[in-house]
Amino acid sequence: MKSAFAISLLIATFLVTPLAAQSPDLKGTWSGNWSKNGIPEAVTVEVQQDEKGAITGRFRTPVPMEFSKAAFNPKTSAVTLEAIDPKSDKSYRLEGKLKGTEISGVLTGDDTKGNVLLIKWTYFGR
Fold first, then answer.
1. In angstroms, what CA-CA distances link 51 with 40, 48, 54, 55, 80?
2. In the CATH scheme, what is the homologous superfamily, with its name and number, of domain 25-120?
3. Which residues fall within 8 angstroms of residue 81, CB to CB, at 6 or more apart?
4. Which of 68, 94, 114, 116 is least enclosed, having the fewest CB within 10 Å?
5. Domain definitions of the chain by residue range
6. Which pLDDT tens digit goes with each residue over 16-45?
7. Which residues of 77-113 are buried (b: 16+ CB within 10 A; e: fewer)?
């Protein structure tokens, strides 16, 4: 009886571990570009997420600015990041989907809209 329980526990551990490893992770620095009027322009965002899921961060480019709103739905992988340029009052809104180490979607800067692709910075030690 004990061995059957131990085998069941072992099987459950192997099944649950891969699911936990696949949990989407938004934290980190993401860089790429968006097509602004057909011209690619750099975009970099830094995202922090606390243990309760609250998201904070900032755009580093195209303009340095803190997020005014940020949301992430781990079930649908939907990402929304909003900020307002303090110098020009121009609003920016990124709406996309997280898939692995990429966020793809649309970035809107006031009346300019373009496709955006961001890739997460990763480090692999030697």
1. 35, 10, 8, 10, 19
2. Quinohemoprotein amine dehydrogenase alpha subunit, domain 2 (2.40.128.120)
3. 45, 47, 57, 59, 67, 69, 70, 93, 94
4. 68
5. 25-120
6. 444 444 567 899 999 999 988 888 999 999
7. eebbbbbbbeeeebebbbbbebeeeebebebbbeeee
